[in-house]
Specification:
single chain; alpha+beta; 15 helices
Length: 664
């Protein structure tokens, strides 16, 4: 009993205590006291700032260096290595040290090594996703050093040297001038051809002419086939024309009408209708004859024009056969081109890839040069585009200063220069790319080096121009001719060169002037006569000048080379060789003429026969038809007079009868 009462008291007390405590929901709504730091915002912000900062501090420089090496190697077609990259976020600046660019043609050498490159960017451009560099500087330049001759970078390039160096050669080939020009005329060995003639050889010995490759003879057969085909058609066409007998019948019918005896108006009317019928038939016949005559004249004109082309094609056949028989042309202008054309183009070929690179990476015009130069249609007008104010291209190097002074390295030099307004879109920047430099590499004996270039793509028709000059540079072993039986070149020389050129609208205009002094010639020839001539010529030529001009379409330009070596060689060869070459060329002409003379004469006779056959048939028909028309006009006039007289007589008789009735 007592226990039960105690339990009731305890339960009552617990219930009272529970009721006195506040509910859980009420406790949750009680606001906590706010501290001075809002950690809920600070921590996410700190993470957002810390991660990019951590990436920039630890990884950015390494990744940027890797990007330069990767895309630089792709652009250069050979490995590019970078020693170190240091960037400053606060200053928006980057410093790059020791950029080594491998020579794709000679992988054991660098094309150049840049010691230090620094540049500072604009923050307002970076915030727009653009790169604008107000000022950049380049220091310490080394040209063409061997890889083993200088200290290597801290890390090797991740690219295979041989693979990348050969990649350019495995491409579709040089896209521009060198690929096609080297395949055309003058690809033979002119000195070897001269040697064969000088040694008494006969270029035509054992040669049996065949007519299948003569363009002139092909033209003869083409015209002959056309004449035969036309003859068949004209025979059919002439057979459908009225014969002279029918023309005579028409004439006789017209002559039979005697308009002077016509008195009755009915007879006059019938005669007039007959005259008109004959005249209409004559007019129809005359039109057919005139059309046929004009068509015959057009065919004859085509045949005669074809015959006139035969001689010009024969001239080309002469040249082609002379080339096949290796008969040289020894006029001075052509001799210089034959000697040096391949030599010049081979020297220019390595630089073709850089032109291709610039062409690949610069923005392309929206229209072809031909479309640009065409005038707009009347009433259409022309569109003009204007850049946005304060706009930036994706990349814009406003100004870069290049400076380098000689060091202990044998490949360093004294260079100063400027690069202005290098951008990815010149229409936005409104300024062309300009490059200017000057300097020397004394330890390599390269002196008086200077140049300037302008790449103007601000307008729709781009214009690129440049001028490079070097006052003195050493020349290593070079061979103008290097074949099994002949070598002609020089072991060393001291050169002076100037290159001046422009590219625009698919056209090239390039001038190269070279002068070599202190030339140490290297001459070898199996032919003793030619060897003596070459040695004599080499003694006369000092300095050696090689001046070339390349112009025309960029893909297939014309090349002209002038050299005092060609003049001296021509003098040394003398009149005897002139006579031998002239004799060989005359025999070639006789050979070609003998092949085409007979067929050409037969063709001319066939054309003459065609002319006389069809013109002679058409001429009498035309003359007789014209006679019928003339006679028809006379008969028509006579019938008209008779009709007029008949009307007058009838009226007179009727008037007389009327007078009698009225008794006048």
């Amino acid at each position: 009993m007592t226990n039960s009462m105690d339990d009731d008291k305890n339960n009552t007390k617990m219930t009272t205590d529970v009721k006195a405590s506040p509910p859980v929901e009420a406790l949750a709504k009680i606001p906590k006291k706010q501290g001075p730091i809002r950690w809920g915002a600070v921590i996410p912000f700190a993470v957002i700032v810390a991660l990019p900062t951590l990436y920039y501090t630890i990884f950015f420089d390494a990744h940027f260096r890797g990007a330069i090496e990767k895309y630089g190697s792709k652009f250069n077609k050979a490995p590019v290595t970078v020693g170190d990259v240091r960037s400053s976020f606060a200053n928006a600046s980057i410093e790059i040290t020791r950029v080594a660019v491998t020579n794709a043609e000679k992988p054991a050498y660098y094309s150049f090594v840049l010691g230090k490159l620094t540049f500072k960017m604009r923050w307002d451009a970076l915030l727009r996703g653009k790169i604008v560099i107000d000022e950049a500087s380049l220091e310490r330049i080394e040209i063409n050093p061997p890889k083993e001759g200088i200290a290597k970078s801290k890390r090797e390039s991740p690219f295979d040297v041989d693979l990348i160096a050969s990649s350019y050669a495995e491409d579709s080939g040089v896209k521009g001038m060198a690929s096609e020009v080297l395949q055309e005329k003058y690809e033979g060995n002119i000195l070897g051809d001269l040697a064969a003639i000088l040694d008494g050889g006969d270029p035509l010995a054992g040669f049996k002419p065949t007519s299948e490759n003569y363009e002139s003879l092909k033209k003869v057969k083409e015209i002959e086939s056309a004449v035969t085909e036309k003859e068949i058609k004209w025979q059919e066409r002439i057979s459908k024309l009225p014969t002279t007998e029918k023309i005579d019948e028409m004439s006789a019918k017209l002559k039979a009408i005697d308009t002077k005896k016509l008195k009755n108006p009915k007879d006059i009317k019938a005669a007039a209708e007959s005259i008109k019928e004959v005249a209409d038939n004559a007019k129809s016949t005359l039109k057919v004859v005139k059309d046929a005559k004009e068509a015959v004249g057009a065919d004859l004109k085509y045949f005669k024009e074809g015959v006139s082309q035969i001689q010009s094609l024969a001239e080309k056949d002469y040249e082609e056969l002379e080339k096949r028989l290796k008969i040289p042309d020894i006029n001075v202008a052509d001799l210089g081109t034959q000697l040096f054309k391949r030599y010049i183009m081979q020297k220019l070929a390595p630089y073709q890839k850089y032109i291709d690179m610039v062409d690949d990476y610069l923005p392309k015009p929206k229209r072809t040069p031909k479309e640009i130069l065409e005038k707009p249609a009347r009433g259409v007008g022309r569109n003009y585009s204007f850049g946005r104010q304060n706009a930036y291209p994706l990349f814009w190097l406003r100004h870069a200063k290049v400076s380098s002074t000689s060091t202990d390295s044998a490949f360093s030099g004294d260079i100063s220069g400027e690069i202005s307004n290098l951008s990815t879109d010149q229409k936005i920047s409104g300024r062309p790319i300009e490059v200017a430099f000057s300097g020397a590499f004394p330890q390599q004996k390269i002196l008086g080096l200077s140049g300037r270039a302008t790449f103007d793509h601000t307008k729709e028709v781009a214009v690129e121009s440049f001028l490079f000059k070097v006052d003195s540079y050493p020349v290593d072993t070079q061979y103008i001719v290097d074949t099994k039986g002949i070598k002609f070149g020089y072991k060393k020389a001291l050169g002076e060169a100037q290159i001046n050129g422009t590219f625009s609208a698919g056209k090239i205009n390039l001038t190269l002037n070279n002068s070599l002094q202190n030339v140490d010639y290297d001459v070898y020839a199996q032919s003793k006569i030619l060897l003596d001539i070459l040695n004599t010529t080499a003694e006369k030529v000092e300095p050696l000048t090689i001046n070339s001009k390349i112009s025309g379409d960029f893909s297939s330009p014309s090349v002209l080379v002038e050299s005092n070596l060609a003049s001296a060689l021509k003098d040394s060869l003398g009149e005897q060789l002139d006579l031998k070459v002239a004799e060989s060329k005359a025999r070639v002409r006789e050979m070609v003429d003998a092949q085409i003379a007979g067929p050409k004469k037969e063709l001319e006779d066939k054309i003459a026969s065609f002319s006389s056959k069809y013109e002679d048939k058409l001429k009498p028909i035309e003359e007789k038809t014209n006679g019928i028309l003339k006679l028809g006009d006379e008969k028509k006039s006579g019938a008209g007079k008779q009709g007029s007289n008949a009307v007058k007589n009838t009226a007179k008789k009727q008037l007389g009868g009327l007078k009698k009735k009225l008794k006048f």
